[in-house]
Design goal:
Blueprint: E1 4-7, H1 12-25, E2 30-34, E3 46-48, H2 54-64, E4 68-71, H3 77-82, H4 84-107, E5 113-119, H5 143-162, E6 166-171, E7 173-175, H6 188-198, E8 202-204, E9 212-216, H7 217-229, E10 241-242, E11 246-248, H8 250-258, E12 266-268, H9 272-277, H10 287-293, H11 301-311
Helix pairs in contact: 1-7, 4-5, 6-8
The structure holds 2-amino-3-ketobutyric acid (AKB).
The site of 2-amino-3-ketobutyric acid has 11 residues, from loops.
Length: 323
Amino acid sequence: MERILVIGTNGQIGSELVEALTEKYGVDNVIAADIGPHSLYGAECYETLDVLDSNRVAQIIDGYGVTQVYQLAALLSVTGEQAPLKAWTLNMNGLLNILEIARERGQAGKPLRVFWPSSIAAFGPHTPTVDTPQLAVMDPTTIYGISKQAGERLCEYYFNKFDVDVRSIRYPGIISHKSPPGGGTTDYAIAIFHAAQRGERYDCYLGPETTLPMIYMPDAIRATIELMEAPADQIRIRSAYNVAGLSFNPRELAQAIKQYFPQFEISYQPDQRQAIADTWPHSLDDTYARADWGWHAGIGLQQLVEDMMANIKAPQCGLHHAA
Ligand code: AKB
């Protein structure tokens, strides 16, 4: 019987992951945690938890008999640039705390499986941009990307040295309608839908041809759970897997939205986020994920737009200026 702790559940991925895990493993076996006093998304079992407080993390893991931890608490690419030291501390020490607890539990015969999210931000300006291979030059330029690259190395190190069963995905930009994103460079691809639904023009902070890898939330959740459920001996990559969903640029997305709202208008005013996006891949080669644990993306642009349009009803505050 698995007991699953998800840290960072008030964030974009965490909120939907808890829902999916609860459906699969039962409400008694999924513990949601975040730094705030309560769950923003109605998680049944919720703990206030700062991932930097390793004693309390260990207490919760022992108290609930946790067998899997998803450590999702992090600052993303845009918010990270606003507070680099905070981003480094949270992103690195949060991961290290969990890896250390997993090492100790493993040595005591109580293995803990760990999921930690990497990102396409771990790549950089010298990475091949089209069909970026699993193993490529990685020279990230943001503190977020640097923490992701260092985190990948830590994960691989803890696996090789201490046999910690840690697994990771280099998430593309994740598009969702249930919970807002939290300060990333790819957030435009959500904000644009809210503007369209409000009948407003969208002023895009990226240029029209800025193609980036993206994934729709149901695919991202499925990839995450499939990776965590795969037999350990099939997981050849212990840094983080490339996982491709789809790739598009703001002009193509606006075109697709216009099929629903012919009056929809977009203008382009690239800001400092353009410089970040320019260092990231356009598309990913996910051969390893396909071969090792059977990954394949299910949702293309047409279905994504249709589903976003059907689900975004009421305007949400804050998304227009996601940074
Ligand atoms: C961001 O834009 O910072 C994130 C990411 C790609 O990791 N969405």
